[in-house]
Design a protein that fits this description.
Oligomer: homodimer
Structural class of chain A: mainly alpha
Radius of gyration of chain A: 20 Å
Keywords (chains A, B): DNA-binding
Helix content of chain A: over 70%
Order of helices and strands of chain A: HHHHHHHHH
Strand content of chain A: under 5%
Protein name (chains A, B): TetR/AcrR family transcriptional regulator
Largest interface: A-B, 37 and 37 residues
Organism (chains A, B): Zhongshania aquimaris
CATH class of the largest domain in chain A: Mainly Alpha
Number of strands of chain A: 0
InterPro entries (chains A, B): DNA-bd_HTH_TetR-type_CS, HTH-type_TetR-like_transc_reg, HTH_TetR
Pfam families (chains A, B): TetR_N
Number of helices of chain A: 9
Largest sheet of chain A: none
Chain lengths: 201, 201
DNA sequence: TAAAGAAGTGAATCATGATTCACTTCTTTA
DNA sequence: TAAAGAAGTGAATCATGATTCACTTCTTTA
C-alpha cells in the first residue's frame, strides 16, 4: 500500500471540517442563513468551493449541521436551567430567562434559529428542536402537576405553548437593543402565570 | 379613439383576477405555498402563464396577495370574538378558540399561514399580520389590566406571547385529525392562566 | 525518488422556476 | 369592415446558486 491516512492527516481533516463549520456559523451570525452560500463559506474558510463538497455531501447537510450545533448549545443551556435543584416554578422561569438572555446576547443568530425563512431541510430541523424544547418543558410541567405545585393541565400543550410564547415574544424585542431586562422579567412572569403556580415555596 | 375599456371588459378583468386568486388559494390549501407556482396557477385557472403577468407584476405580488386575503379573513374572525359584549377573559379565550377552530377546519391552509417556510416577501407579510394579531390582543389585555380584572403585566409582551402560544401549540395537533376539542379546551385554559384573570364574573 | 491515493480547485454545467416577448386573438369604435 | 388597443399565449430566456469534474497539488509508503 502506498498511502494510508495518518493520524496527522485525520486531524487536519477534522480541523478543516470544523473550520468550515465555524466559517458557516459566522456567516449565519452576521447575515442569517440567507448569507450561507457555498461560495461564501469557501471563501471565508480560505478554500475552493469544491473543497466544501469533500466535507459535506450537499448544502442542506452543511446548513443543517450549522443549525443543529448552534441549537444544541441553546437547548443544553435551557436543559441545565430546567434540571437545577430548585422548585418547578423557579426552574421554568429560569429556563425562559436563560433562553431570552442568550437570544439577546446574539440577536441575529437567535433570529436565524427562531424565525428566519430557511430551506425546508433546515426548517425540518427547526421543527425537531422545537419538539425537543417542548419535551424538556413538558417533563417539568408534568412533574409540577403530579406534585401538586402546578394547576391541572395538559403538559404537552402547555409546553408547546410556552415554547411558542418564548420565541414569539422575543421577536420584537430582538430588533431593538433596548430594555432587555424588562422583557425578561415580563417573560418570566408570563410563563409562571401560564403554567398556573399554586404554591410558591 | 378606436378602443376604450367598457364596463363589460372591466368586469371580465376583475373576474379574471379573482379567478387567478381563487386558483392560487386553492393550490395553497392543497399543498401550501410550495405548490404555488405560476405554471400551476395558470393551468388551474385555465389560462396561459403570460396571462398571470397581466394581472400581477410578479410572483411575490401574487403570493403576498393570497396570503393577505386568507390572513385577513382569520384576523377578522378573531377580531370579532375580541370585540364581543363579554368579559375581557371570555373574549380572550373565545378569540383563541376561534383561531384554533378555524385552523382545524383547514389544517393545510393554517399551516401554510402559520409556519410553512415561504418566500421572504410572504414572510414579511406574516410578520406584519403577527403584529396585527398582537395589537388586537394587546388592546384587550390592556383594557383588562386597566379595569383590574387582569393581573398587572406588560400587555405588549403578553399579547405577542399569546399569539406565539396559539400558533405553536396548534402545530402538533394540526398534523393529526384527532382530539381537536381537547386541544381547544387546553388552549383556552392556558390563555386564561397566562393572562392572569383576577375576578371571574 | 516514484507511484498510489487522496485532498484541493474553480470554471463550466445544471436545476428550478420566474420572467419575457414576439406573436395571435379578441373587443371596441368609427 | 378596418384599424386601434388590449388581452392572451407559451416557447425561449434569465437568474441564482448549487453541484460536478477534469485537472493540479499534496501526502504517504515502498
Amino acid at each position: 500500500m502506498a498511502y494510508r491516512e495518518t493520524p496527522m492527516v485525520k486531524q487536519r481533516k477534522l480541523a478543516q471540517k470544523s473550520g468550515l463549520l465555524r466559517a458557516a456559523e459566522s456567516l449565519v451570525r452576521e447575515g442569517g442563513f440567507a448569507a450561507l452560500t457555498i461560495q461564501a463559506v469557501a471563501s471565508k474558510a480560505g478554500v475552493g468551493v469544491g473543497t466544501v463538497y469533500r466535507y459535506f455531501n450537499n448544502k442542506d447537510e452543511l446548513s443543517t449541521e450549522v443549525f443543529r450545533r448552534a441549537t444544541i448549545r441553546e437547548l443544553e443551556a435551557v436543559k441545565l436551567a430546567l434540571s437545577a435543584e430548585l422548585s418547578v416554578a423557579v426552574r421554568l422561569a429560569d429556563a425562559a430567562e436563560v433562553f431570552a438572555q442568550r437570544a439577546f446576547a446574539a440577536p441575529k443568530l437567535a433570529w436565524a434559529l427562531i424565525a428566519e425563512p430557511v430551506d425546508p431541510a433546515v426548517d425540518l430541523a427547526r421543527l425537531e428542536y422545537r419538539k425537543a424544547y417542548s419535551a424538556l418543558f413538558e417533563a417539568v410541567i408534568a412533574e409540577g402537576v403530579d406534585s401538586g405545585v402546578l394547576v391541572s393541565q395538559t403538559p404537552s400543550l402547555s409546553a408547546a405553548a410556552l415554547v411558542g410564547a418564548m420565541a414569539e415574544s422575543l421577536l420584537g424585542p430582538l430588533d431593538h437593543p433596548s430594555c432587555d431586562s424588562l422583557t425578561i422579567v415580563a417573560l418570566r412572569e408570563f410563563c409562571l402565570r401560564a403554567v398556573g403556580v399554586l404554591y410558591k415555596p
